Amino acid sequence: MTLLASVGYDRLTMDAVATEAKASKATLYRRWESKAELVVDAIARAKGSPHPSIIDSGSLRGDLVAMACHKGGGGLNDPHALNVASSVITALQHDEEFSEAFHARFLDPMEAAMRGVYERAQRRGEIPADVDLDLLASVLTAVILHRAFVLRLSVDDAIVERIIDEVVLPAARCASVTPLPVPRQS
Fold it and tell me: Following DSSP, what letter does each residue of 130-155 receive, concatenated?
């Protein structure tokens, strides 16, 4: 992770990882078939957050706080973590092998688990039945990443809790709204 943070995904090589780990490249390839597999595994291990499928506090807010409020908003205040996340976001856009591995082993399970949190909340009656859970499940992460990468603002647990309380929970509690038809131009 240190090497990934310092050189980025594109410039990371198996040779450099082997040197850093004081191991042979053959040793790395026995465990990981490719750089993409190695990086995804390293990220999954480094994440160190509670796995969302085992979080069930009994409330939507409690589950969201338990998932997102650790290491200061997912660690995005740490320049090291910010560099890793930036590198990953870039690689997702242009490296198909990495993107597929990252989705299959990291994003898809996290998304499914996040959706599970919202489904449990829906069963408890905290969310109306007609709310789009797929859309809702992406809101918290989207706002956090926008704040960190686009606005270049701090992301700590207090901010994450405000996002949960002022954006996510109000959105979750609203019934879906049918959009008004767009007037045709004459």
Answer: TS-HHHHHTHHHHHHHIIIIIS----
